[in-house]
Amino acid sequence: MKSIKKASKNETELIMQIKNGEEEALIDLCYLYKPLINKVKSMYHVRYYDSQDWDQDALIICHDSAKKFDLKKGKFSSYYKTRLTNHAKSLVRYDNAYRRQALKQSISLETARKNNLSPMKKDSTSIPEVPLSENIAILTAHLSNLEINALLVELGLKNQDEILRRLNISKLTLSRAHSRLAQKMRKTLLS
Fold first, then answer.
1. Which residue in 68, 76, 95, 152 is a FRET match for 40, CA 20 to 30 A apart?
2. How many CA atoms lie within 13 A of 143 on its CB side?
């Protein structure tokens, strides 16, 4: 029971120090809430956000929360948790809205075929023409020529028979290249 009151007193002192402009107290206050910060990090996934980004946002929100928090009203822990969680939700909403932009601009293959569009039958396609995220750029940098061709076949940008004939390889060789490609994709894109 004493440790809870001591932590609470310590929290109040740290908040007062932050309100008085003693910024070094912010690190100590954030340390008290490290489990909460880690929980929020694990609950919400935002593309291109790493652990340092989350820690920086948590620090900024903690500072702002401490400055605005009224010690006479409620608990700081609840206030900080709400603000941090709301921030995470806003990031996820923004990220999802960005992802939906591509969906709004896309059309189905059936519609493309009806309108005599043949996006899957380009004469030549080089990987840099395709918009790449950082992870896909890393992936393609580590692919062999055979694996790149297997990717183009899988995406429907190249004809399998044409690739087999041009590279003078068997279906088994292309199939193995496809398997290596799948492994590299999982390793690069899902880790």
1. 68
2. 26
State phi, psi for 81 to the nearest 5 degrees: -60, -45
Residue with tokens 């919400």: 44
What is the full DSSP assignment across 39-79?
Answer: HHHHH---TT--HHHHHHHHHHHHHHHHHH--TTSS-HHHH
State the Cα–Cα distance between residues 151 and 100, nearest whole angstrom: 24
Q: Compute CA distances 98 → 103, 104, 134, 182, whole Å.
A: 10, 10, 16, 26
Cα 177–Cα 183–Cα 184 angle in degrees, nearest 5: 90
Residue 163: both structure tokens together: 């690739």
Q: Which tops the pLDDT comparison, 64 or 114?
A: 64
Q: How far apart, in Å, are the Cα atoms of 109 and each of 69, 115, 125, 130, 131?
A: 54, 10, 18, 18, 19
Q: Which two tokens stand for residue 161?
A: 């028979």
Candidate from 58-62, 92-96, 108-112, 181-185 with smallest mean pLDDT: 108-112
Tell me which DSSP letter residue 127 carries: G
Helix axes 34-43, 24-32, angle to 10 degrees: 60
